[in-house]
Design goal:
Order of helices and strands: EEEEE
Number of domains: 1
Number of helices: 0
Radius of gyration: 14 Å
Oligomer: single chain
Shape: elongated
Distance between the termini: 16 Å
Bound molecules: zinc ion
Strand order of the largest sheet: 4-3-5
Number of strands: 5
Length: about 60
């Protein structure tokens, strides 16, 4: 059994600072840059904000 999984180090959430192996890339508004937030903080970002954009999920472990 090869243990060669590609595991990236967890990234910190840019809202709460907690490291997570799954983050969501979002844009809070048209004026803010893209940020990476954890699934706990994601609901705090208003989807109804003008300019809100969802940029997909980031995962530490990518299985191919
Ligand atoms: Zn967070």
């Amino acid at each position: 059994m090869g243990r060669r999984r590609k595991l990236l180090p967890p990234k910190p959430c840019e809202k709460c600072g907690q490291h997570a192996d799954r983050l969501v890339r979002v844009k809070e508004s048209a004026q803010t840059p893209w940020i990476m937030v954890c699934y706990t903080c994601w609901p705090d970002i208003g989807e109804e904000n003008e300019g809100y954009e969802y940029g997909g999920e980031w995962r530490a472990s990518k299985r191919r």
